Amino acid sequence: MDYGTIFSSALASALGPTAIVYALAAIGLNIHFGYTGLLNFGQAGFMAVGAFGLSVSVVTYDLPFVVGVLIALLATVVLAIILGVPTLRLRADYLAIATIATAEILRLIFGAVETKDVFGGSNGLSGFAQPFIELNPYDSGLDIGIISYRRDDLWILTVGWALVALACLLIWLLMRSPWGRVLRSIREDEDAVRSLGKNVFAYKMQALVLGGVFGGLGGIVLALSQNNIKGSDFSTNVTFYAYTALLIGGAARVLGPVIGAMIFWFLMTGIGAFFSQATSGTDPLIPSDIMTDTQASLVRLVLVGLGLMLLMIYRPQGIFGDRKELAIDAR
Amino acid sequence: MPADNHSLLAGVADTPGVAKPDPIVKGSNISRQFGGLKAVDVEHLEIQRGVITALIGPNGAGKTTLFNLLTGFDVPDTGEWSFNGTSLQKVPAYKVARRGMVRTFQLTKVLSKLTVIENMRLGATGQRGERFWSAPFRPLWSSQEDANTQRADELLARFKLDAKREDFAGSLSGGQRKLLEMARSLMVDPELIMLDEPMAGVNPALKQSLLGHVKSLRDEGRTVLFVEHDMDMVRDISDWVIVMAQGKIVAEGTPDQVMSNQAVIDAYLGAHHDTDITELDESSLEAAAEQELDEEGTHG
After folding, report:
1. CA distance B19 to B23
2. Which residues of A touch B113 (CB under 8 A)?
3. By the 8 A CB rule, do A194 and B96 touch?
4. Contact status of B73 with chain A (Cβ, < 8 Å)
């Protein structure tokens, strides 16, 4: 048992590119669900549109990298509007159904054989991140003993965490403003907001677009960190991992999704590494008739799920949430 | 003051749908059907400016539905209606509110997880900080926000909620919520304020002060339309009463005229309420019962 390795791999994951991707996706969900009360179950769809917006522009249509990024962000805005126009006037659950269905449709289209010429089929698209990698100012990777990152990863981490910081700053500025107050009010009771002369539909649309753009940014960071993207990267569990991260950190808190994503990936990787070590080797800690190493790779999901349940029971407000605020619902 | 307000309506006949000297709301042929039930079927309706009008009627008479229709929260099947002379047909609820016609709700809708003062600030209209692009930049909206806060504080003091300023609205009592909702709607600075059962679930002590607040709305020049069940309340503060039953306006008039109106008494108590059932002919009752039994026999 090498606890040092387990810890350092967990830490590397908590600060790594995947945590950034999920932090951005969860920041988007925080705007949707945490502040406005919109149930978006299709954040993976927004991420996919961001990732493919970039890669299709660059690989399939040979456009410059910067144009690709702009197209990617524009595509998420368009997706949000298409989803919002028919569903935002209806009850909250219709948006949930429409978004989860749309995310699945997008995933299947992006991975389909029929659209292979544009989206690359099951192999996806790759090589589009070259202009980004070439901008890398670092000469070498980072190794501070407990964690180390390769040169490419270090560059994506710099840009990614800067994006997360900017996103948090923007959310903080927006949510202390009267605009944020309208969103939180819509979450509480949209008819009351309507009766005070606010165009609830327009605010919900703005929230859906903004959160969708952050989801798209998450998709772009994922695409850049892998330099390859395919439809199967955006299955529904991506959305639910992002929701888990948000709930761990605490909804409707600026730093909630960020800390939540870090904790989520620390646990996922740490528990995964622990069980992988505990079931491998000639004399495993857990005998193979209790658990084989293939089973071990799934145990982390069981344990993280259990952890989420316990969190919801004993600390439903998440790490950063305000217990006082939550107690009001109990009345 | 009441004398002046009554005089605005002096000489107006007490017939349903009667024309008023200076109506703020005018509507005709407004109907709304829910499945087989015609919830609202109003031939003609006018609300006089500058007075307190009560809308009364038994449960299910269509009062709240009429409120929803007038304020754009629901769309009628037929009819046209106007506010200050401009039509409100197909105007969404938020625009109705911006034009100066603001409603409250039967089941109070306070924003529980916002503080009382934040509830109030939300009510202010035309806020620069509510626009997405200017929201992140505080200097663009802070002066307006300060002015709104000052106005909100004055209203909170008037409605005796200033001690609760920083509390979550969800922690208020039922009566305090009614007060907060009324105060919040005043932040919109409405010409016509529509209160849906402002006294429901409010304790008697607070009722008196709520009554005072409703009167003060009229005294500062606003028009009030309210739905209420408590007849003493209606008699005490309203200048004009409109009675609805089964979706229709069945009577109108001053409180005294309405309370002695046979149609109103029938609507509330049933047309046969003063028939003594013990005096009903026993033999006719028996005949009816027998007939019923026969019918059951043939059906079975």
Report:
1. 8
2. 184, 187-188, 325, 328
3. no
4. yes
Kindly state whether B97 is in contact with chain A, defined as any CB-CB distance less than 8 angstroms. Answer: yes
Contact B135 A170 (CB under 8 A): no
Collapsing DSSP to helix, strand or coil, B208 comes out as helix
The number of distinct structural domains making up chain A is 1
Give me the mean pLDDT over the A29-48 stretch: 96
- Measured between alpha carbons, how far is B101 from A8 in angstroms, rounded to an integer? 63
Q: What is the mean pLDDT of chain B?
A: 87
* CATH label of the domain that carries residue B239: 3.40.50.300
3-state secondary structure of B150: helix
Contact A194 B131 (CB under 8 A): no
Task: State whether the Cα torsion B151-B155-B161-B163 is positive or negative.
Answer: positive
A137 touches chain B (CB under 8 A): no
Who's near B132: CB < 8 A, 6+ residues apart? A174, A179, A206, A210
Q: What is the pLDDT of residues B146-205, one digit of tens each?
A: 999 999 999 999 999 999 999 999 999 888 999 999 999 999 999 999 999 888 878 888
pLDDT at A67: 97
CA distance A23 to chain B (A): 21
Residue B249 domain boundaries: 2-110+172-299
- Which of 110-129 (B) contact A at CB < 8 A? 110-114, 118, 121-123, 125, 127, 129
**Could you tell me the CATH number of the domain that includes residue A49?**
1.10.3470
Side chain identity, residue A81: I
What pairs with residue B101 in β-bridges? B192
Evaluate if residue B279 carries a pLDDT over 60: no
